[in-house]
Design a protein that fits this description.
Its main location: membrane. With 294 residues, the protein is an all-alpha fold. It is 73% helix and 0% strand.
């Protein structure tokens, strides 16, 4: 049976209308989803800011919490300093290992790299409380609670994030750049250090800073490792240390209004710190020659 031209035109018109409707419906759905997500985010940030600004002031950034949680006043300076120290330890531990692993995965590969990449993917999905329990079993049991233990736990959380982000950035480096360097007689190791890494440096730094921002807000693993110390500012990472996230948790679960007010101010401080890391990562990403397609 032959299909006439008018019949084909009718079917084509129906198909076009169906595709147009589907495209319109999906666009509307995705737009509504995006608007709802942004609205929830703005609501959360606005609420935290409104509650936190009621208490946040100079003394909050310069004083430790009062001995009595029901007493107003005080601040979280020990938590701010502790967060910077513990996250700093985690960053120092995770960056070299993460960079080395990502370089091995991309530039060398092999069966071992495939197995290691699978382990990395598994680590990304492991709940952070499990990571804290692991560090508790292998470190805290033998050496006690400390900022070092908290740094190790956060380093294990940051490590797979750094590996995956650095790996993706290295894959974006054109192979022609590598081949040009090798054609000039440069060794592979020298090519990686002098050509590949500088080309992807902006993206690598962005991934690292986002991993740092993620670690800054972690609480669960620190409950089993750093444990916290609200009495005074501890600068020795071999001792128990407080972080902003631990102090927010500890003050929020009390029934005292003053402690909960400090928790809101701490939450706002933590949001600002994470926002600063995220903004820095975005600014660096804009300078990336890879992301700009150069």
């Amino acid at each position: 049976m032959m299909v006439t031209a008018p019949t084909l035109s009718i079917e084509a018109a129906r198909t076009g209308r169906r595709r147009t409707f589907t495209n319109w419906a999906m666009t509307a759905l995705l737009t509504a989803t995006m608007a709802a997500t942004i609205a929830v985010l703005l609501w959360v940030l606005g609420y935290v800011a409104a509650e936190g600004l009621k208490y946040l002031g100079p003394e909050f950034l310069t004083q430790t919490p009062p001995g009595n949680p029901a007493q107003p006043g005080g601040g979280f300076v020990n938590g701010i300093i502790g967060s910077l120290i513990i996250v700093g330890i985690a960053t120092v531990l995770s960056i070299p290992i993460g960079l080395a692993a990502a370089i091995y995965f991309v530039e060398y590969g092999g069966r071992l790299a495939r197995y290691a990449r699978f382990v990395t993917d598994v680590m990304v999905g492991i709940p952070t409380i499990v990571t804290g329990a692991f560090v508790y079993a292998v470190w805290v049991v033998h050496f006690g609670f400390s900022g070092i233990a908290g740094g190790i736990a956060l380093a294990l959380i940051m490590l797979p994030l750094i590996i995956r982000s650095v790996e993706e950035m290295l894959r974006l480096v054109p192979n022609e750049i590598r081949e040009a360097s090798l054609a000039l007689g440069v060794t592979r190791a020298r090519t990686i250090v002098a050509v590949v890494l500088p080309t992807a440096s902006s993206g690598i730094i962005t991934g690292i800073m986002l991993a740092v921002a993620r670690a800054m807000g972690e609480t669960a693993p620190l409950l089993l490792t750093a444990l916290g110390n609200d009495l005074f500012t501890e600068l020795n990472p071999d001792k128990r240390m407080s972080t902003l996230s631990l102090q927010i948790f500890g003050n929020a679960i009390t029934g005292f209004k003053a402690a909960q007010a400090r928790a809101w101010a701490g939450a706002l401080t933590l949001v600002v710190l994470v926002l600063l890391f995220t903004l820095a990562a975005r600014l660096i990403a804009r300078r990336s020659t890879i992301s700009q397609g150069r």
